[in-house]
Amino acid sequence: MRVVKVEATPVTMTTTRSNATSRGSGSSFSRTIVRVESDNGLVGWGEAPRGDSAALINKRFGPRAIGLHPAEWQKLRQVCLPPRRDWGLIDESLDYFAYSGLEVALWDLWGKEAGLPVYRLLGGGVRTKTPFAAYAYAVDRALGHSTAEVPGIMAKIAADMVKETGSSLFEFKVGHQPVDCEIETIRAVRDALPDHVAIALDANMGYTEDQARRLLSALRNVEISNFEEPVATLDGMMRLRRDYSIPVSTHCTRIEALEAYPGIDGVVADFHLEGGFIPLLMTASAVASQGHRFWFHTYQELGVSWAARCHIGMVCPQADRPGQALINWVKDDLVTGDDFRIRDGGVCPPDRPGLGVEIDIDAFKEAADVYAKHGEQAYLVALS
Predict the structure, then answer these.
(1) Deepest of 31, 58, 234, 346, by most Cβ within 10 A of its Cβ?
(2) What mean pLDDT comes out for the span 313-329?
């Protein structure tokens, strides 16, 4: 089997509620859907962040995949990405995004040829399902909610999401509201959930260190299982960890940088930014060897990337903490069925070849038309 055609299409989708964080809010986002066709008629599907990944795949990376067997991902990677990452090149992250979408499609295609789910191609499951947190955006006050209403709204979201997903962890965005409002919101969320359900916070670096200290000082009697990127520096995170004994996590996966910060408890990563499944598994192993916990970061993904996340979670030994999940807030994930819905705290991919998803062609075409009409839609728009 050889690849004979690669086609990447940008799409735009919406969320069921405003995706408010400390960095902004919005309800539309763009992605790229990748279709790879083989000479025996099989089709593999992939997905990349951002709609502008499509041009990179169609013009640069896709032509280099023609004639390759889907299993030759290593060969393709060598001709698509540099041998080492240059953190000074701004465009390089988009290259990794685009390449990862193409690679997902190749894994899907290879699995279909082999008659095996992707997680079996990757070595087989080390757990019965990939664990995920119930995860939510902040309440967007720009929609007319007062600060007095925010704690009750978020508490209801927390209770509803835990009931829907069966997760043992509720994680939510903070830093969007005034600090006093956040304090009351966190308390309300804790009171709304059963004792066995932990809570975690994700600030997207939204606090100054003084703000974070004011928040944590007021919450000393509230058990918080993790605080993700409360401030913008690893130094600041370490100081908060030392002074408040609340575990902290970061998106930084640079091993040489993390070596100086052994007090950072968790590292959160994604196969798109790492440039594929195997690099992500290598990252997980490397950060675990330094004593950090590991779990999955989430973008605003659609059904193909979500399925890929579920498959790789089955084979990553280090990813035992529930990963982040925003799929619940997508209005249409562009795939058929609900086999990848979070149930009892996780997802067990169906025993079907490849990723095990089918594209909803009509919905896909509609989303492509929206992109063609409106162009790239950022994950977030800036706060005024």
Answers:
(1) 31
(2) 96
Q: Give 100-131 pLDDT, tens digit per residue.
A: 999 999 999 999 999 999 999 999 999 999 99
- Of 152, 147, 200, 196, give the one whose Cα is nearest residue 172: 200
For the chain, give the secondary structure using H, E and C.
Answer: CCEEEEEEEEEEEEECCCCEECCEECCEEEEEEEEEEECCCCEEEEEEECCCHHHHHHHHHHHHHCCCCCCCHHHHHHHHCCCCCCCCCCCHHHHHHHHHHHHHHHHHHHHHHHCCEHHHHCCCCCCCCEEECEEECECCHHHCCCCCCHHHHHHHHHHHHHHHHCCCEEEEECCCCCHHHHHHHHHHHHHHCCCCCEEEEECCCCCCHHHHHHHHHHCCCCCCCEEECCCCCHHHHHHHHHHHCCCEEECCCCHHHHCCCCCCCEEEECHHHHCCHHHHHHHHHHHHHCCCEEEECCCCCCHHHHHHHHHHHHHCCCCCCCECCCHHHECCCCECCCCCCCECCEECCCCCCECCCCECHHHHHHHHHHHHHHCCCCCCECCC
pLDDT for 380 equals 55
As a whole number, mean pLDDT of residues 346-352 equals 97
Spelled out in words, what is the top-level CATH class assigned to the domain 3-115+360-374? alpha beta
Question: Fold match between 3-115+360-374 and 130-347?
Answer: no
Q: What is the pTM of this model?
A: 0.95
pLDDT of residue 383: 33
Report pLDDT digits (tens) over 242-287.
999 999 999 999 999 999 999 999 999 999 999 999 999 999 999 9
- Specify the CATH number for 130-347; select among 2.40.50.140, 1.20.140.10, 3.40.1190.10, 3.20.20.120: 3.20.20.120
Is the per-residue pLDDT at 382 higher than 50? no
* Mean pLDDT, the chain, whole residue set: 95
